[in-house]
Amino acid sequence: MSQVINPQSLYFDKSPKTYNKNMHIQYEVFTKLLSLIDTECFETITDIGCGTGIITKKLHDHFNSKKTTGLDQSLSMIDHAKSSFQSDSLKFYQKSAHEFSNHDQADLIFSNATLQWIPDLNLFFKTLKQSITQPTTIAFSIFLPGTYKELAKGLRHIIDKSITIPAEKFESLETIKTTCKHYFKTASFKNHTITHSYKNIFELLNIIKQTGSKELYPPMQFTQTKLTELETWFLSTYNTIPASYEVSLGIIKLK
User: Fold this and answer.
1) CA nearest neighbour of 15 among 1, 26, 5
2) pLDDT in tens, 75-93
3) CA nearest 100: which of 89, 91, 111, 87?
């Protein structure tokens, strides 16, 4: 299968050393997703979009898996995961989600905070459907377009009315459900909105940057004056610096 190049991997390539310190939202989403399956037993696990490997290692230890595999398109992320966590029963490979094959199937196929970056969800779910030939649980979290809605509103109000943020281009919940259920009739979804407040606008923007998120469109450089104006707008509008994260958790059980 030819590799589908995802430009987002170029951003994640820059952040393996900063990702773990700034992934508080990704970890919170992980714990919510894990709670939906944590009473089950899985001897083999494949983690799609494993990043630095820290979540993969937690999955591996939680289920005491005999074999866990982490896949990620970013070579720098995979190198970091290998150097930090690889063992005889926990392996990491550079591979895009679209390259999933029957060699990657496992009792649990897991993907946390990754699928929103995949350029073709239809192809991804189709590839899973064609590759899985054994009883399997698929568990995934995916961010929705309402993520960072406060930031999008503030940027357009203060900086540039034409600005769009990457989250606004994520697939809608209805599209995700329709696409997924076309291939997996048993798919079920639970939705959450997580809201965090930050100390200042710099902290929010820095966390977004350090976890590998894309740049704004049109791209721009923030001046100190514009950052101050943006923070003032946030405080006058919300009395804090909030960020909402809208996420859907999907569970598919194949017998």
Assistant:
1) 26
2) 998 999 999 999 999 999 9
3) 111
Q: How far apart, in whole angstroms, are the C-alpha atoms of residue 78 and residue 96?
A: 11
Cα distances (angstroms) measured from residue 193 to each of 33, 41, 148, 170, 231: 13, 28, 11, 15, 22
Over 60: is that where the pLDDT of 51 sits? yes
Report the candidate in 22, 244, 246 with the shortest Cα–Cα distance to residue 116: 246
pTM of the model: 0.90
Q: What is the distance between the alpha carbons of residues 244 and 147, in angstroms, rounded to a whole number? A: 6
Contacts of 17 (CB under 8 A, 6+ apart): 80
CB-count exposure of residue 134 (10 Å: 0-12, 13-18, 19+):
exposed
The pair of structure tokens assigned to 123 is 């192809």
Contact 120, 98 (CB under 8 A): yes
Angle between helices 149-158 and 224-238 (to 10 degrees): 120
